[in-house]
């Protein structure tokens, strides 16, 4: 399993609700964890492996009991705002300061098909918002302040050259 890198156009896909947890889904999620650990990430969204389903995984601690699978996730409450640096496995070596909510209440389905509602704070809340953005076809560079985005232009061009896809068509709003 390979992690798609910017500017792969698939990263702009808005994913669809996952209707059924089949054995194929369970298998794929297992493989997503292996791929994420190999890349030393703390979160990975389906979009990043070319899958158009509303699924993301995360593990902030790196321990087996820290593994979380979120299917059809929705943020039902959020509070506080703070800016901090974040990176992305699809944007190797880039980091940007992004404003996120400090605390979110996330409703989703686990890999067992059970509904779950968990409160996430700080880094965990940041990861949740970052991964849900992926499921909406959005990368952290689309949330940069305009001046920061300008500063990152050269680095983005380097990635565009390295990963050879067409440069992105849209501009930040
Ligand atoms: Zn990411």
How would you portray this structure in words?
- The protein has helices at 23-38, 122-135, 146-151, 153-163; strands at 43-45, 55-58, 68-86, 96-109, 115-121.
- It has 173 residues and is of the alpha+beta class.
- The protein has one domain: Alpha-Beta Complex (Peptide Deformylase), CATH 3.90.45.
- A 5-stranded antiparallel beta sheet has the order 1-2-3-4-5.
- The mean pLDDT is 94.
- Bound molecules: zinc ion.
- The site of zinc ion has 5 residues, from helix 2.
Overall geometry: globular
Q: Provide the CATH superfamily.
A: Peptide deformylase
Average pLDDT reading? 94
Task: Kindly provide the name of the CATH class.
Answer: Alpha Beta
Question: How big a fraction of the residues is strand?
Answer: 25-35%
Based on secondary structure, the structural category is: alpha+beta
Low-confidence stretches: none
Please give the CATH architecture.
Alpha-Beta Complex
Q: Briefly note the CATH topology name.
A: Peptide Deformylase
Q: Sketch the topology as an H/E string, one letter per element.
A: HEEEEEHHH
Q: Share of helix among residues? A: 25-40%
Q: What ligand molecules are bound, each kind once?
A: zinc ion
Order of adjacent strands in the largest pleated sheet: 1-2-3-4-5
């Amino acid at each position: 399993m390979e992690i798609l890198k910017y500017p792969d156009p698939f990263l702009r896909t808005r994913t669809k609700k996952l209707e059924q947890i089949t054995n194929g889904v369970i298998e794929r999620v297992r493989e997503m964890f292996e791929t994420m650990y190999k890349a030393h990430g703390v979160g990975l969204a389906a979009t990043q492996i070319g899958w158009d389903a509303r699924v993301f995984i995360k593990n902030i601690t790196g321990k087996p009991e820290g593994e979380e699978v979120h299917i059809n996730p929705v943020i039902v409450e959020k509070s506080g705002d703070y800016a901090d640096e974040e990176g992305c496995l699809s944007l190797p070596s880039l980091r940007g300061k992004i404003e996120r909510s400090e605390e979110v209440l996330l409703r989703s389905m686990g890999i067992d098909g059970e509904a779950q509602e968990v409160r996430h704070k700080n880094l965990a809340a940041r990861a949740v918002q970052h991964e849900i953005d992926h499921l909406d076809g959005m990368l952290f560079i689309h949330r940069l302040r305009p001046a920061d985005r300008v500063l990152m232009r050269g680095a983005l061009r380097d990635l565009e050259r390295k990963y050879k896809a067409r440069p992105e068509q849209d501009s930040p709003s």
